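Hey, resending since the last one bounced:
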Amino acid sequence: MAEVTSIRAYALVTAAYWGFTVTDGALRMLVVLHFYQLGYSDIAIGFLFLFYEFFGIVTNLFGGWIASRSGLRVTLYGGLVVQIFALVMLALLQPGWPEVLSVAYVMCAQALSGIAKDLTKMSAKSAIKVIVPDGQDSALFKWVARLTGSKNALKGVGFFVGGVLLSALGFAGALYAMSASLVLVLVGTMLSLSGSLGKSRKKVKFTSLFSKSPAINWLSLARLFLFASRDVWFVVGLPVFLSGLGLSFMQVGGFLALWVIGYGIVQAAVPRLLRLFGASQGVTGTLARNWAFALLLLPLLMIAALTSHFPPLPTVTIGLTIFAVVFAVNSTVHSYLVLAYADADTVSVDVGFYYMANAGGRLLGTLLSGLLYEYSGFTGCLIGSAVMVVVSGLAAFKLPRDRAASLAHAIPASD
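The structure tokens again:
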């Protein structure tokens, strides 16, 4: 593989991904709060994100194949350009349009944004496997934890930025401001990044798009239901629930921002947390299964508290704070395992397939979030979350018990 393996190249890819991530989080908050303000139903708001998630599935499937043939620079630049176009397209939405036309228009713009998000994410995540030497599992786990944690922390910042921009500049003004910032990121990256990062030495056939590795297939299934268990309450249910409790747009954005930032911080610290909890066997499929079932306790406890008429805001705040910690461990373990299972020369294809399942989980969670909240409230969303966690844990039973990163070496003494 003729690749650029320098830290500088990876740092540039990561910096571009960070810039994109802030706008992605802000856009989600803008869309939810703006259309809730306009009086759209919970189901209609949920539908606004369906194409975003569906085209994320398609993008991950084909994006990995494109990156393996053309290099990760192509997919990275493509993601940034498509997101700029999607933001400008949304800014042109007119308030006087009929609701059906507005929903269809926003769904199309969100489709482009979904394509953009997964092109940039696949580029950044695949770059880790390229620069970490084979056999350095501990280093790989540490890099995965740091990238994933920083990305989610910045997405949380984006939620807060979205609430602030909506209050300060309005819907269109916020979108134009974000598109201008991404233009600067794109130009800076194009002027600084060169080489063929992530381009395969051998010609990757189109028929190789679907993973032939049982380990990656089962991990992808576990990932699908893991992320469905989060988005089934996160996408529509939680923002609308908080707004219904009387929180302002900025307060809702701040709540979600703090949740995601905390979640990201925990992800970056997962190697330390696992050592603290005595995971002496390292990072394996067994560990993924055990933490999945630990996650199940959180929605069940919140359901019990809400149905027992505990104060809703403290209940949700405490429950989701603990959920963030346990979910972060699950997510980071998965993100390490896919790279451990992947072939270094076709990593973008394997990672693309895995994140196709990730996007499928978000699509499932997004669809159910609006439906369950409409008919069963926030408690219904939590019941859906519990069911998804159970399926994710069952899929993890099929994961290999080896390919472990030694936690004793995942964290250098100087850290």
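The chain has 14 helices and no strands.

Sorry for the duplicate.
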